[in-house]
Amino acid sequence: MATVHNRIRIRFEVSGRRFEAVRLLKKDEPGCTGDEILRRASAENGGAIGDEDEAFLRKHRAELPAKLRPYWLATNRRDPDDSRCVSGFEWGGDGWYQDWYWLGYQWRDYGLVVRRCA
Fold first, then answer.
1. pLDDT given for residue 13 in this prediction
2. How far separated are the first and last CA of the chain, in Å rounded?
3. CA 38 to centroid of chain Cα atoms
């Protein structure tokens, strides 16, 4: 099993709002469910961004920095049709796209949680 760096923190700014994208895997943990990742995010610094910040990033997603392209970025905005899915962003080669991530899947080292910074 490959060693996974358990913590990544990438700080970034979009239209004057400061955020950070963090990996919340434990040392050598290859992945864990989205439920557990969001629980860990809530235990640290207020948790993943919700509806208002997600809508802001969706509107300004073209401004997300290139250093985030290798990752998909999870929020805590729930799908109105399926509360077991949360909104996230991923790079598609020609731009950032919004998609839904199921909380029951194993989130791997390429999944980061977006949090708001003061």
1. 97
2. 37
3. 9
User: What is the H or E stretch that residue 105 is in?
Assistant: none
C-beta separation of 113 from 22 below 8 A:
yes
**Is the whole model's pTM more than 0.90, yes or no?**
no
In the DSSP assignment, the letter for residue 80 is T
Q: What is the pLDDT of residue 2?
A: 39
CA–CA separation, 102 vs 84, rounded Å? Answer: 6
The residue behind tokens 């509360």 is 83
AA identity, residue 78: R
The pLDDT tens digits of the residues spanning 49-84 come to: 999 999 999 999 999 999 999 999 999 999 999 999
Short-list 114, 117, 115, 109, CA closest to 7:
109
Q: For residue 19, what are its two tokens?
A: 């955020």
For the CA atoms of the chain, what is the radius of gyration? 13
